[in-house]
Amino acid sequence: MKLHHSRIAMIALAALGCLGFAQIDRAVATGPLAIQGATIITVSGETIANGTILIRDGIIEAVGTDVTIPGEAHVIDGKGKFVMPGFIDAHNAAGMSQANEQAAVVPFLSVVDSIDPVAAYFEECRRNGITSAAVVPGNSTLIGGKAAIVKTAGQYVNDMIVRRDSALKLSLRPTSGSRMSQMALLRKELDAAKKALETNDEDSKDEENNKDEEAAKKAESEKKEGDAGGDGSGEEKPAGEEPAADAAGTGVDIGLEALKLAVQGKMPVYIYCEVAMDVSAAVKLVEDYGLKPIYVLGQECYQAVKLLAKQERTVILDPTLVYWKTNPRTREDEKIELPTIYLEAGVPFVFQVSESDRRTSLGTSYFWYQAATAVKYGVAENKALAALTLEPAKLLGIADRVGSIEVGKEADLVVLTGQPLDIATWVETTIVGGEVVYERDTDQKLKRLLSPEAE
Amino acid sequence: MRVITELSYFGLRCTNNSLIALLLSAFLVAPSLAQTDDAYFASSIWTGEGDPIRNGVLLVREGVIVAVGPRDKVEIPARAKRHELGSATLIPGLVIAQTNIVESTRAEEYAISPEVRAVDGFDPFGDYQVLLAAGITTVQISAGNNRLMPGQGAVVKLAGDDATKQILSEVESFRIVLTREGLTPPTVYEPPVGAVSVERPVEPTKPQLGTSLAQAVVGLEALLAEASAAQSPDDVRLQALAKILKAKLVSRWSAGSSAEIRAALQLAKQFNLPWIVVDPLEVDLLTASEVWQSDLARGVILNPELRPGRITNPTVPREGAKPEMPVWKRARLLIDAGAGDRLALRSATDQDLNKLLFTASVLGRGGLSSAQILKTITSNPARMLGVADRVGSLKANADADFVVLSGAPFEPGTKVLSTFANGRSVFESQAKNETATVIHAAKIYSSGGVLESSSVAVAGGKIAGLGADVSLPQGAKVRDFGNAVIIPGMIDCSTSLGLGGSLSETIAFGTALGPLLARDDDQVALGRQGGVTTALLSSTRLPSPVLAFKLTDAPRALKDPVALRFEVKGNLTSDAANVERTLKTGKAYADAWTKYDAEFAEYKQQLAKYEVEKAKYDAALKAVAAKKAAEAQKAEEEKKKLEAAKASADATGGEKKDDAGKDVDKPAEGKSTTPPGDKTDPAKADAKTDDAAKSTDTKAADAKPSDAKPTEPELVEPKKPTEPKKPATSSSLEPYRDLFANKIVAMVDVSDVKAVDLAVKLFRKDFGLKTVIVANEVASRRAKLLAENDVFVVVGPTLVDTDDEGELINYAAELAVARVPIGFQSNASTGVSEMPSAISYAVYEGLGSSDALKGLTAGTAKFMGLDSVGAIEVGKDADLVVLSGSPLLLSTEVLAVMIDGEWVYEKESHK
């Protein structure tokens, strides 16, 4: 099935003339793959010098210094290189065609319908070692719809999906009317969901039981899928999908269903906070409605760092980690170092990169750069690396599958030419689900960029 | 770890100015919250209810008030930290009954939006420093002003450690604006219905009520009735209203006229809602006695209708119109009607909130006492807002939100010194901190000797106290420099600082250099870093006047001029004559003035005497004139008689006839007032005493016929003393007067030994001037001569030299050994900062450090007549230099420099 897809894709791409790095030697990936003699930064455990990783069927089969490589395996020489878990982008709106809606309340939308597998974003992800990404509706829609977690390689959206409807997106940035009326509108929607749940409870306890059973079943099947080592870009059915699917027939409000899952704490909620006062509003919402929040923070939210510390949750920082700000009253400039502030307050954080249209700027558009900045301002290097990999995996609830180099986890790996946070380091190879999806040697675009005369 | 967290939190939110204060307070308060209590002693405490407590104390534990009362009635735990606030007054943190300080960058669209909650627009991380600085700690926030039903208000604190805890009441009231602002809502553009989809459904038009009061009231009534009847309405507005009505939320009515107030009261009654009336202009309905017996009457909020610093043009009232009742009268009437505990005052606008302590005093016109006025901005609003248990008055178990005022509230000149919220200082007045500093150091070189482990208290730019146990001025900032040494600010006897560049033009002695000093001169800022706080400035082209000034940012002339500077150089034969001539000219000028001054003083005395005499004389003259008139009449009669007699018998002596004729002439002249003495020479008269005049008169009288009465001799007109002639004023010679009066000194630059001799002879011996010789090695060779003649010597910048044989000559030391008083000069601009280091070499090579220090401070100050500087002594200028170790060692570093009570330099690590 998988092979089939990729062949079609290859033909299609060739026909379109879209050659280059996308043309991958998939045949290699079908057999076992080994990376030999590299420094392996497992993130979850000790770093292994001169280690070997053996990948079979997209799953890491063995890691260590004394791994026997089967004869049929394709071997990547890792000598002098570093291998890390693939980076995970916990929040971005770049993978979809349009981030925001004009209407303020659109909980029924799903980004899956908008993800473009051949978007430049995904190409950039592979080039920069990002193997999983949460595609989330933008920051300018009050209730923006449902996010999805995808792998960054695949020809069709369904190949890429790790988790559909992984979370709901709320944004507290006012776009029409004041913050007060925005909040009134948001509360109205959440109240409606709460009320609907109460009615549901009274109406049919049986249905609830059924749901539970279904959920249990689903969890089981997921587990099975994982055990079986199904392909990494396989699709999962989220908790919220069943009622939504039903909706088509019964006329149930899909948006309301999503909100209901959110107020039950079954579906995580991204809450974008533009300024510090949004953080206190978000915290209040979480308390009032029992939400399971993922805080996405704007630059100014550091003022609420004490409040965030009390929430004991990993937060997603703004792409601009260090900036200058003028105090409006004293007109004095002060340097704001977000990593320092959050580190000292004891708030765990992961990074975002600036959006694709600003990708021309070096620095904040790269995850390694964000981590290096954090290290500069006092974050321990291993923590910074975890903030690129295992921490976002945990935040997104996919740590059982990705985020570290462990036996049994999906083989989402990135091979680096040197130390991960070194500016001279390149991504040599990116592996998603045991398949090599990027090789620098075949990256024509990069080559053209670096040596135009060669054309 | 907790402390660090707090530090970074505050540090990042605050400005650099308040950073240190906040860091300090975070350090101090964090542990105290855990263990100790804080006791604030103040001369009076206004609790917000009733009369102030004199000599009170406020005891705070963990941000909550434990006790408040008179000093002798409240038991203070031994572990409590005591804060003596002296003459300060404590009042509760102000509570404002209505404001609009919410985030509202975009206006709401609809006239009726009861579902909107102001609390969602409150930014707990906003910058409320301006309001905190005005003593405001709690405010009601409202969701809007210019719509009929803007939404639900909240009560929030403007400061707090925990953002979520700053909200005292999430939903406090719902507001209805019946005044004109509310009845003319912003127009809503309803776009034509376009493509309809699931996400863009066609919505029914939201209720927009009419723009007349009658329409609004009818509409409101219908809406409220619908909301109270509806079971579970779909409309978000009705949902919100139903909730509001169920919870019996306070209704807050903006209503000015009687009609509006009537509508408000009627609707509130109809739906059984507690009410607050805001900004009533007519109070006849609110002053009915039964109104305030109702439980629903929560209170009235008045608007002072006063914007400090703004002038409005009131409209001329129409003829026959009812005059508008002033706010203080309305307040008075409401209190009389029983609303005394339910009356609050708000600010006319949010921009004027920080002036509320001033504007509130307008109620004093209505005869309200200060305590009553304070109630309207503290305990009354707190009660009306339903948060009286926590804020608004200083009582046990309430939040420790209080304001430290410099004096009684509403008095002119009373300032907010600091504001506390939850026991934590959230505002400290800068002015307060600048006025007083207490500096502690291991050694202080005071004029009374070296004090070990002592403090200097500085207030108002002067040294206010000195000693091991110095009393703390009000609100003093304490700086402990640990093992440091404090010496007086030093004096540099010759610099080229102060004018932004060196001065080499010829300057007349009369030129005042003080007004030419440049402000914020970078050279001065650098020059003072070595510890020199007073510098002398003159032109390099001599002679020149010399100015003494302080090295502050705005340099202050200390003495202008402090000296006149001459030079004796080159060809001494001609030079000596020249200098002598100059001095002679000066002396002549000064003498002329001295003489004039003496004469003038004499003249003044004479004049005073003359005026007394003249008054006496005038009085006497009047009496005499009256008498004479009577006599003349008599004489006339006698004359007639005499003539008659003469005519009858014409045989008498010629001499007698003459005299008689004279005698007769006089009365004939009648009013003649000229006494015989007047005819004497004025010069003689001046010398003559009254007695002499009398004796002359007596003689004259003797010569007169015996029948003439001796009244005339008393009528000597006193001589008006002539004013002495002023010598011609010459501005360039003017300073010589002070010079020859020894008020200022003569500084003489000399080139060689002979010049020293000459200078001493001329300036010191011949003219008796206070003389300063500016020289190096040449002076040291005449040390004995200089010592004998009390001549002061300025040395430097080179203090130690090597002679031909390689011997070191320490000029300063030689002079000091000979007991010649010395001072030092750098002749530099920014190099002034290096002078103390230069002197340290002389000290290293044998100059006594106490002699050197004396020359840099007290010795020079005394000789130059700079009375306010040069010593650490109570009453002198607070010019202090903080050193890392003993003075005048190369290993010693300047840590900080204070001039006139202000830190002008601090080493980076000591900031």
What does the model show?
The complex is a heterodimer of chains A (455) and B (911). With 455 residues, chain A is α/β, with parallel strands linked by helices. Chain A is built from 15 helices and 18 strands. Chain A has helices at 2-16, 26-30, 120-127, 157-160, 179-203, 205-228, 241-250, 254-263, 276-289, 305-311, 338-345, 367-376, 381-386, 390-396, 444-450; strands spanning 33-40, 48-56, 59-64, 74-77, 82-85, 87-92, 130-135, 143-151, 161-171, 269-273, 293-297, 315-316, 322-326, 333-337, 349-350, 413-416, 427-432, 435-439. In chain A, strands 1, 2, 3, 4, 5, 16, 17 and 18 form an 8-stranded mixed beta sheet that branches. Chain A has a 6-stranded mixed beta sheet with strand order 6-7-8-9-10-11. Chain A has a two-stranded parallel sheet with strand order 12-15. Chain A starts with a helix and ends in a 5-residue tail after the last helix. In chain B, helix 1 (2-13) packs antiparallel against helix 2, helix 14 (572-648) packs across helix 18 and helix 14 (572-648) runs parallel beside helix 19 (753-766). The relative contact order of chain B is 0.08. Chain B contains 25 helices and 34 strands. With 911 residues, chain B is an alpha/beta fold. The radius of gyration of chain B is 44 Å and the shape is extended. In chain B, strands 1, 2, 3, 4, 5, 14, 15 and 16 form an 8-stranded mixed beta sheet that branches. An 8-stranded mixed beta sheet of chain B has the order 6-7-8-9-10-11-12-13. The model of chain B is unreliable at 1-34 and 653-706 (pLDDT under 50). At the A-B interface, helix 5, helix 9, helix 10 and helix 11 of A face helix 1 and helix 6 of B.
